[in-house]
Amino acid sequence: MTPIIIVLVILVILVFIALIKTVQVIPQASAAIVERFGRYTRTLSAGLNIVVPFIDRIRNRIDLREQVVPFPPQPVITQDNLVVNIDTVIYYQVTDARAATYEVASYIQAIEQLTVTTLRNIIGGMDLERTLTSREEINAALRGVLDEATGKWGIRVNRVELKAIEPPTSIQDSMEKQMRADRDKRAAILTAEGIRQSQILTAEGEKASAVLRAEGDAKAAALRAEGEAQAIRTVFESIHAGDPDQKLLAYQYLQMLPKIAEGDANKLWIVPSELGDALKGLGGAIGNFAPPGGGNATSAGNGTAKTVPPRREAPGIEND
Predict the structure, then answer these.
(1) Rounded CA gap, 246 and 238, in Å?
(2) Can you tell me the distance from the alpha carbon of 81 to that of 171, in angstroms, rounded to the nearest whole number?
(3) From the centroid of its chain, how far is CA 158?
């Protein structure tokens, strides 16, 4: 092989290497930092780019997409001197490739350390109960501090999430016992309220039933009284229409005497004073039909009526 051929092969190789170094293809959502003799020259965007070979150098290729970085659990002390382990997740995006390259040596490490210190400052002003129930507040405060601090690094923090907040084991046991006691208390209260409501409904039902029963009894008594009054009124009107005399009334009373005298409890009964006049007229009427020298007398006493035979004179004895 002659020296000329060797030189030509070397030149072809150099030209090929120069072409490779001259043409730079940058993927979509990426950026490249170009330095010339160690000094920043420009930022290459996505697509085909031409650089000066052997003079321009690609310093760094940066992904401009949103990145997710989980950080390991960090021990944090609360306001009531309890140590809790908190896992965090950061969602960030590079907005300025030049600042992310030259303003900070390692923006991932810087974000992690800034997250830890900011988290300790926020949690240090809260007690354990507030820490467990204020995740949204902690996320908002942490994101505000990180977004402000990382802005000069060309980083935008989109979201900050707390994956887990783990209190000490003894505190977890106490919290479980407290939650169990609270659930038992709520269950007992609900049971008592159910029993109370049931008793109230039962009492109201019994009250309504008693009221309805009393109203029914009252209406029934009123109807019975009205019926009896109507019957008495009808009887009175019939008697008044028949125009009875004292003899008929006395006869009706005499028919009712056995019924009045019935029963062992009837020891005394009262004869109205008007009955005497009626009996006189009735006796006169009966005497007109009775045979001479005969007749019976009626005696009342001890709640019963008895018939007394007429008195006869013994032979040979004169009456005084």
Answers:
(1) 16
(2) 12
(3) 39
pLDDT along the chain (320 residues), means of 10: 78 82 87 90 88 86 91 87 88 91 89 89 86 86 87 89 82 78 88 91 90 89 86 75 64 66 60 58 54 44 41 39
Contact assessment for residue 83 and residue 63, using Cβ atoms and an 8 Å cutoff: no
Task: Determine which helix (DSSP H) or strand (DSSP E) holds 241, and give its type and residue range.
Answer: helix 169-242
Which residue intervals of 60-168 are DSSP H helices?
A: 97-102, 107-123, 128-133, 135-150
The amino acid occupying position 260 is I
| Strand residue runs (E) in 11-66 | 23-26, 30-36, 39-44, 47-50, 56-63
Q: Is the dihedral of CA 178, 180, 183, 184 positive or negative?
A: negative
Residue that is written with structure tokens 């006169």 in the block: 284
CA–CA gap between residue 61 and residue 29 (Å, rounded): 11
What's this model's pTM, rounded to 2 decimal places? 0.52
